[in-house]
Amino acid sequence: MRILMMMGLCASLMGCIIVPVPVTVSSGSYRPSEAPLAATAPAIAGFDRQFAALRAQNGLPPLRSNAGLDASALAHSVDMRAYNYVSHEDRNGLRAQGRVHRAGVTRCGIGENIAQGQKSVEEAIAAWMNSPGHRRNMLNRNYASYGIGRAGDYWTLVFALPC
After folding, report:
1. How many CB atoms sit inside 10 A of residue 95's CB?
2. Would you call 61 exposed, middle or buried from its count of C-beta atoms within 10 A (0-12, 13-18, 19+)?
3. What dihedral angle (degrees, nearest 10) is formed by the CA atoms of 39, 61, 158, 48?
């Protein structure tokens, strides 16, 4: 009897093979927009002026401020301050691209600078310019738009590539 049960089990398992099932991933609303992001009033006017001047000193055009990127940057700064952490990954595991998408902005590429401890726009810009990776973002000629957010001394600067 035991042998018959084993043979039945083996026969039933032989019919179980792994079959790859194609899965269609919907691009839905995540498809990057071809249109440039609308320029909006800067969230922090002092930052906008100083950032534009910094880029001009380095032979670069100013970036366009965008309200959707501002909203994403501010939300990340508020979250970092509320939960006392500094990270490019939020508490839900989202990085800048995901957070920007969640804010309703779809782009082909996103960059991000974060900082903590700076009390002014001047201090935040100086800290980022003294860090090679952050400096590269600030002086990247490929970015077209940016958003800035500040909560106390937590700062987030998000950059977007054009599509």
Report:
1. 13
2. exposed
3. -70
Question: Given this model, what pLDDT does residue 27 score?
Answer: 31
Q: Are 81 and 155 in contact (CB under 8 A)?
A: no
- pLDDT over threshold 90, residue 16: no
114 three-state secondary structure: strand
Q: How many CB atoms lie within 10 A of CB 5?
A: 9
| Percent of the chain with pLDDT strictly greater than 70 | 78
How are beta strands 154-160 and 64-65 bridged, if at all? Answer: unpaired
Please tell me whether residue 24 adopts helix, strand or coil conformation.
coil
Q: What is the predicted pLDDT for the residue at 4?
A: 40
Distance (Å, rounded) from C-alpha 139 to C-alpha 2?
74
**Could you tell me if residue 106 is left (phi over 0), alpha (psi between -120 and 50 degrees) or otherwise beta?**
beta
Averaged over 68-96, what is the pLDDT? 95
Can you read off the two tokens belonging to residue 98?
A: 């995901």
pLDDT of residue 157: 98
